[in-house]
Amino acid sequence: MTITVYSKPACVQCTATTRALEARGLTFDVVDLTVDSDAYTRVSEMGYRQAPVVVAGEEHWSGFRPDLIGRIS
Fold first, then answer.
1. CA distance 41 to 16
2. Is the dihedral of CA 67, 50, 59, 37 positive or negative?
3. How far, in Å, CA of 6 to CA of 57, rounded?
């Protein structure tokens, strides 16, 4: 499964999310929404307005969600 974390600099929830993914040994890519306008558009079209947005296979969510991270690990 491919995991992508759409993030912003100095985002506490983004850092918590990537640390939780790392702690579970999951491999993921981080995309900075402040420099990738295509990614920003994609996330906006999905209906999200806050970072991080995590896309894991067919699942996606916004914010720090340790419960959902646990489900995908």
1. 24
2. negative
3. 14
Prediction pTM value: 0.94
The span from the CA of 65 to the CA of 42, in Å, is 20
- Rounded Cα distance, 11 and 28, in Å: 17
**Mean pLDDT, rounded, of the chain:** 96
- Residue pair 57/1 in contact by the 8 Å Cβ criterion: yes
* Tens digits of residue pLDDT in 37-69: 999 999 999 999 999 999 999 999 999 999 999
Task: Count Cβ atoms within 10 A of the Cβ of residue 49 and give its class: 0-12 exposed, 13-18 middle, 19 or more buried.
Answer: exposed
